[in-house]
Amino acid sequence: MKPFSFVHVADLHLGYEQYNLAVRREDFDRAFREVVDRTIELKPSFMVVAGDIFHQARPSNVTLESAVRNFTRLRDAGIPVLAVDGSHDAAPNVLTGTILFPLDSAGLIHYLPRHRGACWSNDDCYVYGIPNYRSRFRTEAQLPKFYEVNEPKPRPDAFNVFVFHMALDVPEIMKGLSPYMAEASPDYVPSGFDYYAGGHLHAPWQFPFKKAMLVYSGSTETVSSEDAATEKGFYHVEVRQKNNFSVSRVKLETPRRFKILEKDYSGLLPQKITEMAAEMVKEADEPEAVIVPTLKGTLPMESSRRQVDLAMIRGAAEKALLVHVLNDLRETDIPEETIRSIFEGEMKDLKAKSFEYFRQYFAQRYKESDVERNAHLALDLIQLLVKGDDVKATSLLEGAFGED
Question: Tell me, what's the pLDDT at 206?
Fold first, then answer.
């Protein structure tokens, strides 16, 4: 086989109007333009996109036009784009399919799961990709069936790349994360590949896996405060021989500056917390930055999260693009005797008792007009999660509170 190189990128999240700001959508577009610029400079044999090209399954016309323009630049430069879908741009239903279908039909991308054998190959490389199923239950139920129809066939004479979008249940990935985030056991990923190109994790990762290399490229812009501190970019993989390749990080320069201000305010009164957080924001103020003060800790008895003046904290910055306050303060829990009084006796109507518990819980944290609505929402959400219907649960939350 001859030496070649390829680009591995993921989690572009095109079209994401984070904080309901059009300028943030433009930020994600700008980051992708830089990815395309740098890729054309590198002149790889192909690009791999490991899911979440778009933030929504049905992107706006503005977002789609920008994506078409940039994918056309790659096509005109002779760089094939080999893609799989992610949890955000997966097909919402069987009838409509994914937005990646028309892009594939237009010759702008090669949507791997759609093609015979779910693969693309040339003399030197074999690339195989799987669809995203959104949850562990669906993945482990449907992925084996996908393999039956599209059997993975890594070639001994070629460099083999496996493309996917999901968090694998391996210790290196799951350390410090909720076990519910894992979308599949490593047993559901076939052996025999040289490079496993992952998406979904917004931080870059590299570590040995199945006698090969497992790599997550990370996101190209800040999708949430959790990934604000991670370096944004993608990987350039140079293959000299089948067992001789190097992975280089390409750092992006265009992503917007985020400043995370996290502090524990346990025991302090809401007024004092407001003053201290506002002062931190004022000191961190920077032109066009996004400042995220994260308020942590436990409030004193009879203090409420609603007593923290979020408007005053936001107004402390004069130059920043936005101050987005995350109020993670905890209030005093419902007294144990109250909980006992709700659940004591026969458990014939657990739904009604659960609703009463949620009503008591939210009464301490929200204004009266929102208490019953939130209690009903919590009850409906739990029932959907118990059934394993995470798609409807996500839709319920997005409808109630918005995507962010």
Answer: 95
Task: Pick the closest to residue 221 from 44, 395, 49, 55 (CA basis).
Answer: 55
C-alpha pair distances (Å), 34 with each of 38, 55, 221, 232, 365: 6, 18, 11, 11, 44
Exposed/middle/buried for 340, CB within 10 Å: 0-12, 13-18, 19+?
Answer: exposed
Which parts of 344-389 fold into alpha helices (H)? Answer: 350-363, 368-387
AA identity, residue 89: D
What is the model's pTM? Answer: 0.81
The predicted-structure confidence for 261-316, as pLDDT tens digits, reads as follows 999 999 999 999 999 999 999 999 999 999 999 999 999 877 889 999 999 999 99
Q: How many CB atoms lie within 10 A of CB 129?
A: 29
CATH 3.10.20.30 at 4-251, yes or no? no
Q: Residue 182 corresponds to which amino acid?
A: A
What is the average pLDDT value for the chain, to the nearest integer? 90
Question: Which residues neighbour 156 within 8 Å (Cβ) at sequence distance 6 or greater?
Answer: none
Residue 95: predicted pLDDT: 60
Interhelix angle 368-387/390-401, nearest 10 degrees:
160
- Whole-number Cα distances in Å, 122 to 4, 84, 125, 212, 275: 11, 18, 5, 21, 62
Q: What is the rounded average pLDDT of the residues 379-400?
A: 77
CA Rg value for the chain: 24
Helix (H, G, I), strand (E, B) or coil at 51: coil
Contact between 50 and 258 (Cβ < 8 Å):
no
Q: Write out the two tokens for 259.
A: 């400043």
Domain spans, the chain: 4-251, 258-327, 336-401
Rounded Cα gap, residues 135 and 391, in angstroms: 9
Report which residue type is found at 280.
Answer: M
Rounded to whole angstroms, the Cα distance separating 172 from 397 reads: 30
